[in-house]
Specification:
15 strands; four-stranded parallel sheet; single chain; four-stranded antiparallel sheet; Four Helix Bundle (Hemerythrin (Met), subunit A); elongated
């Protein structure tokens, strides 16, 4: 497998430090609110990477943190007149609700910043001993001019830093360098604080991930991932503090996903142009949202529009209906089997697996992986339209559709329809009787009536098949 490494700006073969075992750290949410679709993209993408590595029989240790102390957390808690911890507990539970429904596997470790204070203090102390820090009135700062390779990930020079590059660049006139960042913030009235060698205070944002990743994965990680907006300053600062403290390479492969845009502007709460996953799921469903995100290559921007969401709805329904159709055929066997076509389907299943893996091995190319699945669905639909296929071929096609969708975090065994009401089944029987009596006018009238009620009927060699129409 090859992935695009943002550190080298090239695709590289993905090789773990330890044989058959990858360590992955993914930056998680700041838990002050429900997460939106742009936040969900990295959760889904790197969950898919993890699933694919597991599918390839690698062991994976996966860590995703929760930032549960920062200015946003404090301000939101104060506005709601609750403690920061109460807010964090509530929002982490809400995160799990949405992430679980998006079929994002829970990490092996979900550390909180507030549970990693001793490790954070230890790392800051090491940086202080090595001469990388200095004190200002509001906290302890990292001197980026002391780290020779600062900017190697984002390819920025110290003289070319822009304060507006991130919401979380610290703006102080008395910093030594514009790119310097806070490691420990001194206590302010009404804010949570912890004891430290420098007095009461709380950690800065960047130091959290360096301490948490080291605690659970060691000093050098195989893969560190997150959104493109984290490359600078967050990931750049993680490199600076981790490599200065540990005197070892911090990460071997850096992966960053593109933004989800609204009218070609990055979706963000700060910009007010965001759509909560919870609200979108109530309209489209969680599976469709996951399908929508994975239909674009992870490094490319993805524009949020209703038309692509509708296309995702129909696309995912096609897959579900194909499995549903196979189940219908298996439950209604016919006497004569077309062996040549059955063998052709079995051969195509093997071809699909190869195409799927070729796509995923090429920098997690999920659009081409979906194309392979859709080609198999199309082949099933084409062959079953004219031929009666063997149970062996149908079961193999079904198993592969389900297996490959599962690698993408989608459950293709979900029923497309809720149970068909008996009154609808009675109308289907009346239509079947009318057709048998060659009363085609009545049969067509019943078909139109079913359509108006939101059902469609298909005539197959195995008998009539009724299902709900796709509404979206």
């Amino acid at each position: 497998m090859r992935v695009y490494n943002d550190l080298s700006r090239t695709k590289e073969e993905l090789v773990p430090q330890k044989e058959n075992h990858f360590t992955i750290y993914v930056c998680g949410p700041t838990v002050y609110d429900l997460f939106h679709l742009g936040n969900a993209r990295p959760f889904i993408i790197y969950d898919t990477l993890r699933r694919y590595l597991l599918y390839k029989n690698y062991k994976v240790t996966y860590v995703q943190n929760f930032t549960d102390i920062d200015d946003k957390m404090i301000n939101r808690a104060q506005s709601r007149e609750i403690s920061v911890k109460e807010l964090a507990d509530e929002m982490i539970a809400e995160y799990y609700h949405d992430a679980d429904n998006l079929n994002v596997m829970r990490a092996d470790h979900h550390p909180r910043a507030t549970e990693t204070i001793p490790e954070i203090i230890e790392m800051i102390s090491t940086l202080e001993e090595k001469g990388y820090t200095y004190n200002l009135n509001d906290g302890i700062y990292y001197d980026t001019s002391k780290f020779e390779d600062y900017g190697k990930l984002s390819k920025r020079d110290l003289d070319d830093q822009e304060a507006g590059a991130s919401e979380r660049v610290d703006l102080l006139d008395d910093k030594r360098n514009l790119s310097d960042f806070v490691l420990w913030k001194f206590k302010k009235e009404g804010e949570p604080a912890w004891n430290s060698p420098w007095g009461e205070g709380r950690p800065g944002w960047h130091i959290e991930c360096s301490a948490m990743s080291k605690k659970f994965l060691g000093e050098t990680l195989d893969i560190h991932a997150g959104g493109m907006d984290l490359m600078f300053p967050h990931h750049e600062n993680e490199i600076a503090q981790s490599e200065a403290a540990n005197e070892k390479p911090f990460v071997n492969y850096w992966m960053h996903n593109g933004f989800i845009n609204v009218d070609n502007v990055k979706m963000a709460k700060s910009g007010g142009n965001f759509f909560l996953v919870r609200e979108l799921a109530s309209e489209y469903g969680y599976d469709v949202l996951r399908f929508f995100i994975l239909q674009a290559h992870y490094r490319m921007p993805l524009n949020f529009e209703e038309e692509p969401l509708m296309a995702a709805t129909h696309g995912w329904q096609r897959v579900l209906r194909s499995v549903d159709h196979i189940d219908f055929l298996l439950a209604n066997e016919t006497a004569q089997i077309a062996e040549t076509e059955s063998e052709a389907l079995i051969d195509y299943v093997e071809k699909t697996k190869q195409e799927f893996e070729r796509a995923m091995d090429d920098d997690l190319n999920t659009p081409d992986a979906f194309a392979a699945i859709f080609n198999l669905v199309r082949q099933v639909n084409t062959l079953t339209a004219d031929y009666s296929l063997s149970n062996e071929s149908l079961k193999k096609a079904r198993a592969y559709i389900i297996e490959l969708c599962a690698v993408l975090g989608l459950d293709a065994e979900k029923r497309v329809d809720t149970e068909i009401p008996q009154e609808i089944l009675d109308k289907v029987k009346l239509r079947d009787d009318a057709k048998a009596e060659r009363d085609f006018a009545t049969a067509d009238s019943i078909r139109d009536e079913l359509h108006a009620l939101g059902y469609k009927i298909e005539d197959t060699p195995q008998g009539p098949k009724v299902s709900r129409e796709v509404e979206k």
